[in-house]
Every structure is written in C-alpha cells, then in structure tokens.
Design brief:
The chain has helices spanning 2-8, 17-21, 52-64, 68-73, 86-99, 115-128; strands spanning 26-31, 37-41, 75-80, 104-110, 138-139. By secondary structure, the chain is an alpha/beta fold. The protein is globular and about 35 Å long.
Length: 146
C-alpha cells in the first residue's frame, strides 16, 4: 500500500536532492522544433552504478516539469558518450528504453570518438538497433580545426 501511495504522489525536488545533485541527467530548457522538451544525459562515468530508484526518481521528476502539452509531444534525449565505450552506449540505451517514464520523440547519441570504439559502435549499432525499441540517430562530432 505504501508503494502505491508513493507512486501516486508527485515527486518534489527537495525529496530527491541527492539524486538530482549527481547530475547524470538534466532538463536544459531547450525545445525541439515541435516543442519537445530536451533532456540531456552528459558524460557520466559512473552511469552504470546509478541505482534504479535514483534513475527512476530523477527521470520521473524531470518528465513532470514541462507542461502536459509539451510532454505529450514527446521528449528529445541527448546522450553524450563520446568518452565512453560501445558497451556503455548500449547499456544506457537499453536502460532508458526499459524505464523512461514519458513519451520519446527522439534520442540522439553522441557516440564514442576513438577510432576503434567509433568503428565498433557503427557495426554493433546496426545489429542491435531493434533491441532499443526507439528511434536513435547516432552522431559523430567533426573534429574542430585549430
């Protein structure tokens, strides 16, 4: 009964301050062309160590902030994993696909930048894309000329 009561009451930032302070995800205030709110998952080396409850609390809170109309259009997620390995990218996508509490409009992944991991992500992404159950374009930033 306590679990049902907890799920039905809205989360307040003050109740999950420790989870939010980890900053593994944040609502930037940016919007897509159709008004979709953007949630960013910055580079976060300990992402796989985040407890399921923390993950759920932060995403539930972040998806409750925009208006119902904006949330109804669906969220855009930006996942920065440029400094990571393919296994981390895959784990992040599977975790989000399995437990994101809102509608997803689009998921953008900034993929690993090392040659080996970039090549590996190209190949493995093609074989695993159906596993993610969402539209996920993968981006490779161009190196800046100095």
């Amino acid at each position: 009964d306590e679990i049902m009561q907890q799920e039905s009451s809205p989360l307040c930032a003050v109740d999950i301050t420790d989870d939010l302070n980890k900053q593994f995800a944040f609502l930037s205030g940016g919007r897509g062309e159709n008004g979709s709110p953007i949630i960013t998952f910055p580079e976060f080396p300990a992402f796989s160590e985040i407890q399921e409850r923390e993950f759920h609390n932060v995403l539930t809170y972040l998806t409750s902030i925009p208006s119902l109309q904006a949330a109804g259009v669906g969220f855009i997620l930006i996942i920065d994993r440029r400094q990571d390995k393919w296994t981390s990218v895959k784990g992040t996508l599977l975790r989000i696909a399995g437990s994101f509490p809102g509608n997803l409009q689009l998921v953008l992944v900034l993929r690993p930048t090392t040659l080996l991991q970039r090549t590996l992500s190209d190949i493995l992404f093609k074989f695993n894309k159906d596993e993610f159950k969402m539209k996920v374009p993968v981006s490779q930033p161009e190196p800046h000329a100095t």
